[in-house]
Amino acid sequence: MDMNLEHSLAESRALIEAGEYSQAAEKLRQLLATAPDHAEAHFFLGVALMEQQHWDDAIGAFERATQLDPEMTSAWHNIGYGYYRQDYPDRAIPHLQRALEIRSDKWDSRMLLGLVLIQVGQLEQAAIHLEQALQHGGEEAPKQKIYEMLANLYEVLDQPARAAHYRALIEETPTQVSPHNETPELRARMEHLILFPDGASASRALEAYRAAGFDAELLDDPEEDTYGMLVYESVSTAGGSLEQVIAQLEHIAEEYGGEYDGWGRDV
Predict the structure, then answer these.
(1) Bridge partners, residue 264, by sequence
(2) Angle of helix 39-51 relative to helix 21-34, nearest 10 degrees?
(3) DSSP string, 9-52
(4) Which of 114, 119, 217, 239 fits 129 for a cystine, CB–CB 3.0-4.6 Å?
(5) CA-based angle 6:8:11, to the nearest 5?
(6) How many whole angstroms separate alpha carbon 228 and alpha carbon 217?
């Protein structure tokens, strides 16, 4: 590699690590103007854009990186993540699968693929990938979160022994305690109303919501033409996650012919 390009790339990475994403993106574009086939520069441009939530542009940069270096596992993973964040799970799946074809022990791709498969209703395959994420992730993997998802999945899949196994692991695994001088994050419990055209669709969606980690219940009102469901979740009062939750709820509803009908604070 040309020493000037190497220095410029190192500066760009330092800017990303410092949170200066706009400056990093500009420097990387300048680098690519002189070295348009530099796969690593395209990758880090994607990272800088992704951190700014410029999803389409970030995906484009990662795709170019994979064209130049088809074995770049992290680029395939990040394309899948970009589609996941935009609530396009069907588009995310093949890119995550490609990442795992290159490197089968990439635990974060296993975990993300598990989450995406839950969204599209492939619950048995989701459980397989989440268990493999535990196997390969070691101390890096968020074990408590994965245990909880697996317990929910196996309850929905009517495998009570497996569900009980992961519930026990949740109890046995110590949770991370925040330093005493940190202010605990305030959380509000929200409820979301979902409507379905028939009881069968609502029941299948109920299982999907529970498998995805939501608390959900059917509304029993035979006089109504539609079948309602309340889905509950907790969001930080600091904000930031409600729109993502709604997008996930909408996608699951659409998979079962339902319609998202709004949210409110559960009192």
Answers:
(1) 191
(2) 160
(3) HHHHHHHHHTT-HHHHHHHHHHHHHH-TT-HHHHHHHHHHHHHT
(4) 114
(5) 110
(6) 9
Proportion of the chain above pLDDT 90, given as a percent: 49
pTM assigned to the model = 0.69
Q: Which long-range contacts (CB under 8 A, 24 or more apart) does 236-240 make?
A: 236/185, 236/186, 236/187, 236/188, 237/185, 237/186, 237/187, 237/188, 238/185, 238/186
CB 39 within 8 A of CB 69: yes
With bands split at pLDDT 50, 70 and 90, how would you rate the model's confidence at 184? very low
Instruction: Compute the average pLDDT of residues 145-172.
Output: 92
Distance from C-alpha of 101 to C-alpha of 85, rounded to nearest angstrom: 22
The architecture of the domain spanning 3-172 is Alpha Horseshoe (1.25)
Helix axes 199-211, 242-255, angle to 10 degrees: 140
| CATH 3.30.420.110 is held by the domain 187-265 | no
Residue ranges of the domains in the chain? 3-172, 187-265
Q: What is the pLDDT of residues 191-232, one digit of tens each?
A: 888 988 887 788 778 878 877 777 788 876 545 567 888 887
